[in-house]
Design goal:
This protein has 248 residues and is of the alpha/beta class. It has helices at residues 2-17, 40-55, 59-62, 81-98, 117-126, 144-150, 162-170, 185-190, 199-209, 216-227, 235-245, and strands at residues 26-31, 68-73, 107-112, 129-132, 154-157, 176-177. It has a six-stranded parallel sheet, with helices on both faces. The radius of gyration is 17 Å and the shape is globular.
């Protein structure tokens, strides 16, 4: 049943984007309104980190990697420039990763356009890993997360929004929970000026800054906001925990 749903989702993605997804790959999905607090940017950084890891592997090591198809979708408010730049970044990363012969089907990245209810009816049943990764204390308890779970998807996320309620019902041990708590967030923001950035976080951001995926000038203000800026939504603080929660 899940494989059939994944095949249907992969077919729809190819129709919309031209990108062929392997139905046997782990279907990793984040579809929701594009906003900094929902942290699609954190997802993109983890994809870049995964891409670089696979690139540095030997052929024997690559055989041990679980293939992953990363699908991101959603709409940005018309005047929300930074959200639109994040969408552009997803597409730029996808263009590079999807055309890399060293990677093949081990990693695919796609942004699905014009996300709506009709598309959700196809993508949600095919999802195996649902990204619910907002900064703790920022997300309302929506039903989208619950729809993924009720269709057999695992959850990777913070203790925020519906994740809190779901954890009460199924047990936190049955979820991939990472990151700081809502109670810790205010103090972490106050301490941001003294934070020693994680070397892997810095290296991942630098790959984009140096132009590996093009558009380095276009993305500079987005990346500066999480390195030289206040990083209000704590991507740097939660990055390593997020990576460890989804180790290959």
């Amino acid at each position: 049943m899940k494989l059939q749903a994944k095949q249907k989702a992969a077919k729809k993605v190819e129709e919309l984007t031209g990108v062929t997804l392997n139905p046997n790959a782990l279907m990793d999905v984040q579809v929701k309104r594009i906003h900094e607090y929902k942290r699609q940017l954190l997802n993109v950084l983890s994809i870049v980190h995964r891409y670089q890891q696979i690139k540095n592997m030997t052929p024997a090591e690559r055989k041990q990697v679980v293939p992953r198809a990363c699908v991101i979708g959603g709409k940005a408010a018309p005047g929300y420039v930074r959200a639109k730049k994040i969408i552009k970044m997803v597409n730029a990363v996808g263009t590079k990763v999807n055309s890399d012969p060293d990677i093949g089907d081990l990693l695919k990245v796609v942004f699905v356009p014009d996300y709506n209810v009709s598309l959700a009816e196809i993508l949600i049943p095919g999802t195996e890993l649902s990204q619910q990764i907002s900064t703790a204390g920022t997300e309302a308890s929506g039903t989208g997360n619950m729809k993924f779970m009720m269709n057999g998807s695992l959850i990777i996320g913070t203790m925020d929004g519906a994740n809190v309620e779901i954890a009460e019902e199924i047990g936190q041990e049955n979820m991939f929970i990472f990151g700081h708590s809502a109670e810790e967030v205010p103090q972490l923001r106050q301490q941001r000026h003294s934070l020693q950035l994680d070397p892997e976080f810095t290296a991942t951001v630098d790959l984009i800054k140096r132009g590996m995926f093009g558009y380095e000038d276009f993305f500079s203000d987005v990346l500066d906001s999480i390195t030289h800026g206040t990083d209000y939504y704590l991507l740097a603080n939660d990055f390593q925990s997020y990576i460890q929660a989804q180790v290959m």
